[in-house]
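The records we work with from here on pair a chain with its fold. The integers have meaning only within a learned vocabulary of local backbone shapes. A complete example follows; check for yourself that the lines match position by position.

:::
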Amino acid sequence: MKLFQSFFILFFALQLVEGQQLHRTVCFEHFAKSGGTYIRTILRQLDIDFIISNEFERACDKNKHFVIGALREPASYYVSMWSYGAKLSGRFFDSFEFGDGEPVINGLPLYGDPEDNQYFINWYNHITSVNPYGLWTYRVMYKYYNGSYLMDDVKHLVSPAYDNYEVEFIDILTHNVNCWIETSFMEENIRVCLQQYAAETGYPLNEPQLEETLIEGRKLGHNKSKHRECSYYWTPKLLTILLAKDGPLIKALNATICKEEYTTAFQGIS
């Protein structure tokens, strides 16, 4: 099942009943390692008027804008985040304090050859040891949920006594975003979002131009990080940590794990 597939069906149905609002600027909610460079390239090539709400901003207002949200499933998100830092650059890499300059903490190298998954194992073990919940959960919560009191919000949603967190979280998402682009289905989701934008605002979408732009965008618009296939890096032990740290939102959003249904990916993991 595609990431958020059942959520998207509900989400689209809710959008239809809200009615059309004309003359809205596109506001793109950028989420790191989710194809933002490619999406921005497509919007520019089509000469669509848009603004960007950067990763740690919450600048989009659905009452004023047609809001496009970006997300990536957590397993490949972590791999891409780590491998981008393997170039010894990037905003997240720069957030570490490596002392003598080498990417080593507590004697363990966190970055190195992206073909060697031991570096990823060291990195993931370190970043998950710092906080009670996963980086992916925190960033999704900040970007698309409350954005103010992350620890309290996460505790609220994952509390065993609170049985309705999936409903509340999805309800918040449907009220903050008009259309979603998920990395695994990038081109398909871009088509759907721009068709929805055209239908709601009267924008004269040129479908043949869109297809040409998607093809051209593959060549021009990716901010790639070098790594092997996602599943190569995830040992059973790491999957156990992923389930513990990001499990509630993975389940709420019906997220895949390296393009595999989470129920299958976590089979035998507790």
